[in-house]
Specification:
Chain A is of the alpha/beta class and about 230 residues long. Chain A is built from 8 helices and 9 strands. Chain A has a 5-stranded parallel β-sheet with strand order 6-7-8-3-9, with helices on both faces. In chain A, strands 2-1-4-5 form a 4-stranded antiparallel β-sheet. Chain B has about 425 residues and is an alpha+beta fold. In chain B, about 40% of the residues are buried. Classes of the chains: A alpha/beta (about 230), B alpha+beta (about 425).
Chain lengths: ~230, ~425
């Protein structure tokens, strides 16, 4: 199993149940391309933050790539995330005052493999594979198009050869031709790196790209927790 | 990469960062400048007189005597008789005694009557004797030796003729213009009040105050009258006497002896002790200055804190991104601290450079107008410890924004 969640509960605050997470079970197999859809603001990102170890659940166990997150301290979880998980957002994937190369190198900084040897080559290979013009590599990313930025974000996510890639609405700011190009690039890279893909979006039109499709509301039942509290 | 990230992040927010740097630079400039000038003034004052064991004047306060005899500030309350000078000069513990007489001026600069011994025995800083840049000590009644600044500012050269004015100040109505003085010597710069002084013989000073027409006529006809032929011009009184003793151990005994003198009410002071007393009276002023400087620094650091804190709000996405690629929350905290320190270091460099330029430009002016030599050597122990303390304050000031960033990083909220 790549990801395994059991009886996971999380709440930002005790008063408002918004974005509350209550997942009885969720499992994603190794190498699987998994799609979860649900409307915006329903708590999908919170769930991803739990899986990546940025947030800790109040209850339950989360196992990622065979390792139990709650057994790690926060520093170990940060290191684990840097080494094993690639992440792509809808926007703000890059630090806009750094250029493409620096953005990608920054992701390497926090991983176990901090050696600079071959880093430049690896970055160049990735950027070439993702069809980013060489003239754009050293320009501040804020001057590049959204499509370019998302492709650099993929390169950033793959620089540490992650075993798990989490994508949070990465295509929502792209138009249709760019979106399809983006998804096929992502799929190819996941296949070559044997990376498990967890893809979250509100856009159900994308589901034919994936091995397995789940509705977020069939995974998450925050109301159950509330009912239990009311009784 | 860590440093690069901080630098690029600062460059990315250059407008607000530059304003913060400007604020901190100005306050650092004030802090370092005030401290530097305070120290320089103190050491300049302290080096104004050395090698003089006692200064003797009429009965007055020790600070007053020090101010008028060494710094030419204020005026003597009373003179002391020539006999007292002779008695002191002949006393057993006394190695040398130099009488000085003040009261006249030339274009705002004080004129001091003294003897040739003055150039031999008076010293400043670490027992540095007076040196002649040009010429020699006075030999004739109407010879004058100029302090370095007097010659420089008024453009005088050897051989020039100058006239003295009665009393002090530039606008004195009584000018001793019938009896001009001849510039025979110019002293090297000392950075002490000596630079602002014109030195003449006691006889010369007496001569310009002669009022009997017959005697005046005689002097007008003999402008080259040597000192050896002017015994009749030896004054009846002098302003103060500088005394050097054979043995330092005798200082307190001899001071008590003079202070208890039965023939004339005299005061003898130890210049070093009087200088310390002078600084003691300045303590309140000194502390007020320190407090103001501290407040200026604190206000600029609050500015730094506020500017960083507001930047955190703009950087929510950046922090979220750093977290997701594996940065710990403490990394984010330390990044904010690093940015604050970079701002502080840049400000320090600007303040030091600015101060150096400002001091270099005003050094000559301060020396001429206040007689204080301000060195441009800024890397003193005092300024370095001030900067170290300041950097510590910066680290503290960056804690609130650091914690804000830390909490944001922990929460994972966007």
């Amino acid at each position: 199993m790549s990801i395994l969640l059991e009886n996971v509960k999380f709440s930002y605050s005790n008063t408002t149940p918004k974005n509350d997470i209550c997942v009885e079970s969720l499992s994603i197999a190794q190498g699987e391309k998994h799609f979860i859809f649900g409307p915006s603001g329903c708590g999908k990102s919170t769930l991803l933050n739990l899986i990546s170890g940025v947030l800790r659940p109040s209850n339950g166990t989360i196992t990622v790539l065979g390792e139990s997150l709650e057994k790690m301290n926060s520093r170990q979880r940060d290191r684990f995330r840097a080494n094993n998980i690639g992440y792509i957002f809808q926007q703000f994937n890059l630090i806009d005052y750094l250029n493409a190369k620096e953005n990608i190198a920054l992701a390497r900084q926090f991983s176990a493999n901090t050696q600079a040897i071959n880093l430049a080559n690896q970055i160049a290979e990735l950027l070439k594979a993702l069809a980013v013009n060489e003239s754009d590599w050293s320009r501040p990313v804020s001057t590049l198009s959204i499509g370019q930025q998302q492709r650099i974000a993929i390169a950033r996510a793959f620089i540490n050869s992650p075993k798990l890639l989490i994508a949070d609405e990465p295509t929502s700011s792209l138009d249709e031709p760019n979106r399809d190009k983006f998804l096929s690039l992502l799929n190819t890279l996941c296949d070559t790196n044997q990376t498990t893909l967890l893809f979250v979006s509100h856009d159900t039109r994308l589901k034919h790209h994936f091995d397995r499709v789940q509705n977020f509301h069939e995974i998450n039942f925050p109301t159950i927790k509330n009912k239990a509290v009311n009784h | 990469m860590y440093l690069k990230l901080a630098i690029k992040s600062l460059i990315n927010r250059k407008a607000s960062v530059l304003l913060t740097i400007a604020t901190i630079s100005v306050s650092l400039f004030v802090m370092l400048g005030v401290d530097h000038i305070r120290h320089q003034a103190k050491s300049s004052f302290a080096s104004s007189v050395s090698g003089v064991d006692l200064i003797v004047g009429s009965r007055t306060s020790s600070i007053n005597l020090l101010l008028y005899s060494v710094f030419r500030i204020g005026s003597p309350t009373n003179n002391i008789g020539w006999q007292s000078y002779e008695r002191i000069a002949k006393a057993k513990p006394v190695r040398w005694a130099v009488p000085i007489s003040l009261g006249d001026s030339h274009k705002g600069y004080r004129v001091m009557g003294t003897t040739k011994n003055y150039f031999e025995f008076y010293s400043y800083a670490n027992n540095q004797a007076l040196h002649f840049d040009q010429g020699k000590p006075f030999d004739a009644v109407f010879d004058v030796v100029l302090g370095a600044n007097v010659a420089k500012q008024l453009g005088y050269h050897l051989g020039d003729k100058i006239t003295l004015s009665h009393g002090i100040g530039n606008t004195s109505f009584i000018k001793h213009d019938k009896l001009p003085f001849n510039v025979v010597g110019i002293l090297a710069t000392t950075g002490t009040p000596v630079d602002q002084t014109l030195h003449v013989s006691l006889q010369g000073l007496e001569a310009v105050h002669v009022s009997k027409p017959k005697e005046v006529k005689y002097l007008i006809n003999n402008p080259q009258l040597p000192l050896s032929q002017a015994k009749h011009l030896i004054p009846k009184s002098v302003t103060a006497i500088m005394v050097g003793l054979h043995s330092k151990i005798a200082v307190f005994n001899f001071q008590r002896l003079i202070n208890a003198d039965k023939l004339e009410p005299l005061t003898a002071i130890l210049p070093g002790v009087a200088l310390a007393q002078l600084w003691q009276t300045m303590t309140v002023f000194d502390n007020t200055l320190k407090l103001i400087t501290l407040l200026v620094i604190i206000s600029s650091l609050i500015g730094l804190c506020a500017s960083l804190l507001s930047s955190i709000k703009e950087r929510v996405n950046e922090i979220k991104l750093l977290r997701i690629i594996g940065a710990s929350a403490s990394y984010v905290f330390s990044l904010i601290e690093l940015e604050a320190l970079l701002i502080a270091l840049i400000s320090t460099v600007i303040a030091l450079t600015g101060l150096y330029i400002a001091l270099s430009l005003t050094q000559a002016f301060i020396l001429t107008h206040y007689g204080v030599l301000i060195e441009t050597q800024l890397f003193t122990q005092s300024s370095m410890s001030l900067i170290a303390g300041f950097l510590l304050f910066v680290i503290i000031a960056a804690i609130p924004p650091g914690i804000a960033a830390f909490n944001l990083a922990k929460s994972g909220k966007s």
